[in-house]
Design goal:
Radius of gyration: 12 Å
Number of strands: 3
Low-confidence stretches: none
Order of helices and strands: EHEEH
Mean pLDDT: 91
């Protein structure tokens, strides 16, 4: 599984779930910690979206087409 997006707010996570489900994408979402803030760094919890490796490019393109900024391909 490849990480393609991190939703930082609940409403964003719900929209991403709907988008991926309606597009027929297989995905896994789980809560995890990330670092946020510029001046005052803090640890926060977000929804991490993973897709199978062979579907990663299609999922990233879908997110871009809908105005989201997916995580870059690390290969």
């Amino acid at each position: 599984m490849v990480l393609v997006c991190i939703a930082k707010r609940l409403n964003e996570a719900l929209k991403l779930e709907s988008l991926l489900t309606e597009a027929g994408q297989d995905y896994l979402v789980e809560p995890d910690h990330y670092q946020g803030g510029i001046l005052f760094r803090s640890e926060r919890v977000g929804a991490f979206f993973y897709v199978p490796e062979e579907m990663a490019q299609a999922a990233r393109q879908l997110l871009r087409d809908r105005g989201y900024r997916p995580l870059a391909d690390e290969t």
